[in-house]
Design brief:
Blueprint (H helix, E strand, L loop, with lengths): L5 E6 L2 E6 L10 H16 L5 E6 L4 E3 L12 H20 L5 E5 L2 E3 L1 H8 L2 E5 L3 E3 L13 H9 L1 H10 L2 E3 H6 L5 E3 L4 H13 L3 H13 L7 H12 L3 H11 L7
Helix pairs in contact: 1-2, 2-3, 3-4, 4-5, 8-9
């Protein structure tokens, strides 16, 4: 499939999706959101892809925010529809994807950019990265899940402060608040993420998909996370990966998933 705003590269079992709008600091517009949805959907369906890395082009920005020019004249109805559709087709879609997603934050991740990074299963930042949700400075609030995911990741009080002040965290601050898992130098970012992705790819993809479901269930008010874990644990027993994993363990060899 041909894309205008993103690039896709596969190396072994790891796919890298790069948002490629450098003149706009990789800002998210409707077209880019649609393309990302399609790319993630196809990658998730491709059994040769076991991990996805999401990043931005060049070194200045992961995603510097949403493309404000697209919604500056929206009314209440349009604004609500914008948030709902974006959450459904991209942000929630990524969070619940069965294929692990690592966000490689290579610069500014602001507004929708940070919301996109937070929808990934975990994050690695370059040392020059800056992160924040500055929406209140525009008279609006985060609409792509930011008011929910940021408190889950860094705690309610700090999230309230960051959103209310429209402030930014540098990479080391983000690390200290556990918003990101690692901070590395810019030139090491993608190789480091690829190394992590390769390590993940050695494990059972079906078990990882079940783990994602069970972990996410614990953050949903209408789902009992413990019951979800029990169900997903039981489901694993019916998979070829469980048979291979346990057999390999008993035979004292590495499993071939």
């Amino acid at each position: 499939m041909n894309y205008s705003n993103i690039l896709i590269n596969q190396e072994g079992s790891v796919a890298t999706i790069t948002i490629n709008r450098p003149t706009k600091l990789n800002a998210l517009n409707k077209a880019t959101i649609e393309e990302l949805h399609q790319a993630f959907k196809l990658a998730d369906e491709d059994k040769t892809i076991r991990v996805i890395i999401l990043t931005g082009s060049e070194t200045k920005a992961f995603v510097a925010g949403a493309d404000i020019s697209e919604f500056a004249d929206f009314d209440i109805k349009n604004g609500g529809e914008l948030a709902r559709k974006g959450q459904e087709i991209l942000f929630n879609f990524i969070e619940n994807l069965s294929t692990p997603v690592i966000a490689a934050i290579n610069g500014f991740a602001l507004g929708g950019g940070l919301e996109l990074a937070m929808s990934a299963h975990f994050r690695v930042a370059s040392s020059n990265a800056k992160m924040g949700l500055p929406e209140v400075s525009l008279g609006v609030i985060p609409g792509y899940g930011g008011t929910q995911r940021l408190p889950q990741l860094i705690g309610k009080g700090k999230a309230m402060e960051l959103i209310m002040t429209a402030g930014m965290l540098n990479a080391e601050e983000a690390l200290s608040y556990k918003l990101v898992n690692y901070v590395v130098e810019q030139e090491e970012l993608l190789p480091f993420c690829h190394k992590l992705a390769t390590k993940i790819s050695y494990n059972s993809s079906t078990a990882i998909a079940s783990a994602i479901k069970a972990i996410n269930a614990g953050f949903k008010n209408d789902i009992n996370g413990f019951e979800s874990e029990i169900q997903e644990f039981g489901n694993c027993f019916g998979t070829p990966d469980f048979k291979e994993g346990t057999t390999a363990f008993l035979e004292k060899r590495k499993p071939k998933f």
